[in-house]
Amino acid sequence: MKESEIEKRLVRKVRECGGLCYKFISPANPGVPDRIVVTPDGRTIYIELKTEIGRLANIQRWQIEQLRERGADVRVLKGLPEVEAFIGEVFGSAKT
């Protein structure tokens, strides 16, 4: 499955659960995570999506480390099964 298809599924599931799923594009800051998820209760989670065989670039690893050092919840989700597990964890298993 392509990363774009995985991303569409994440966006749809998050919205169905009442959350927001913003695209995070920052030309001035390469390697930032793909999406910002905001749950109905205000929790913010940064998501980097990959295919099941995708790998993080060095700049992505650095950006994720920078966010985590500041207390941000950053997830790297590989493939649809990890997206489904994320939705279940964050929004409840009934939403997967």
Automatic annotation (TrEMBL):
Keywords assigned: Hydrolase, Nuclease
Q: What residue ranges are annotated as transmembrane? A: none
Superkingdom classification of source: Bacteria
Query: Which co-factors does it depend on?
Result: Mg(2+)
InterPro entries linked: tRNA_endonuc-like_dom_sf (IPR011856), VRR_NUC (IPR014883)
Record-linked Pfam families: VRR_NUC
Stretches assigned to coiled coil: none
Where in this chain does the record put each VRR-NUC domain? 1-81
What name goes with this protein? VRR-NUC domain-containing protein
Give the classification, highest ranks: Bacteria, Bacillati, Bacillota, Clostridia, Eubacteriales
